[in-house]
Amino acid sequence: MRTVDLKIVDIAFGGKGVARQNGKVIFVPFTIDGETVSSQIIRQKKKFADAEVIEIREPSPHRVVPECPYFGRCGGCSYQHINYEHQLSIKWRQVRDVLQRIGQLTQIPIRPIISSPLAYRYRNRVTVHAQDGVIGFFGRESHRLIDVERCPISMDDVNRALAELRSERPPDGHYTLRAGTGGHRGFSQANDAVANALVELISQLIPSAQKLLIDAYCGAGFFAKRLLDKFDQVIGIDWDRFAIQAAQENAAAKETYIAGDIEDELVAVAAPLCRGATQGQSDSIAPALQREKTTVIVDPPATGLTPNIRRTLLEVTPGTLIYVSCNPATLARDLTELRQKFTIESVTPLDMFPQTAEIEVAVHLRASS
Q: HSE (CB half, 13 Å, CA atoms) of 188?
């Protein structure tokens, strides 16, 4: 293995430092832009190489001591060696760069990143794994379990639940530990404070006098229920029937939740908005008014929107589209197509997961006139 001295010039999406040597990009984890490091090349590819740090020769002023004793071995966190303010600047820049590089989006109306009030002890749930008496998280870039007694980015209640689980010597399996008691088994936001900030942001972006909210990927109704007062009717769609059952509990008369394939159900729900588009002009006025007063929220998994869902959104063209993404790369891909009929009003990064390389982004799109 070859040893090289490198200047870190950037931090790539995913958290690794970026250096360049002889025209080749070299990725070095746990480094900071501006640092000079001595590294060992561990993997050579045609266009890039991977390296591991041997020594930090010129440290960044943003370098700090990680709070977690497992940092570097556990696969959960990538940024505990970086002070929080610089983490925020890195993530903001990554969102901008990915949208420019993949989406070819220029003059992006990107807002300041919304930070987390807590840089540690913010996670309200974690999933740990038990195997052969070891309880913890998978190691970095491996399926080997790291035995973990306490997770510093998790809330105290979660760590108490972890301690109880460890004392019980559970059988091999996966265990989701949550703050508080009860709670729905399906998807929900893991950082309460930033989740509340996200809802407040979306509430501000939605125009007044809206009639209909279609909340795709609605889960247990996280957005739909919190935005209920802004609409005459709310329809939530999700594939997870357990989440839909939870959403239906105590639902108001104007709430409807549908369990099923999101592609199919979104078409069925949105079809009335398209009626008249191929008829005479007088018949198309009502659907146009309906679309103007309709908001659609999409919060897809990391894979982004499917081609069919993108096609449906372009056909329906709701007046307001809010796209919440956990993957800027697939977001950039989807926005490239959605721009055919939508104008990007704003892009807002949110730091839902401090100390990690994860980034949440909320995009406000308006139907083009």
A: 23
Q: How far is C-alpha 72 from the chain's CA centre? A: 22
Pair of tokens at residue 140: 């970095």
pLDDT tens, position by position, 133-186: 999 999 988 889 999 999 999 999 999 999 999 999 999 999 999 997 445 544
Residues forming a β-bridge with 41: 51
Which residues are CB-neighbours of 345 under 8 A, at least 6 positions away?
109, 205, 364, 365, 366
CB neighbour list of residue 249: distance below 8 Å, 6 or more residues apart: none
Contacting residues for 181 by C-beta, under 8 A, at least 6 apart: none
Return d(Cα 228, Cα 252) in angstroms, integer: 9
Tokens 């329906």, located at residue: 316
Strand-pair partners of 302: none
* pLDDT recorded at residue 208: 92
The residues carrying an active-site annotation are 326
What are the helix (H) ranges across the chain? 84-101, 156-168, 192-205, 222-226, 241-248, 262-274, 281-292, 307-316, 328-338
List C-alpha distances in Å: 202 to 130, 196, 326, 327: 38, 10, 16, 18
pTM reported for the whole predicted model:
0.91
DSSP letter, residue 217: T
Q: For residue 101, what is the enclosing H or E element?
A: helix 84-101
Q: Does residue 42 contact residue 52 with C-beta atoms inside 8 Å?
A: yes
Helix (H, G, I), strand (E, B) or coil at 15: coil
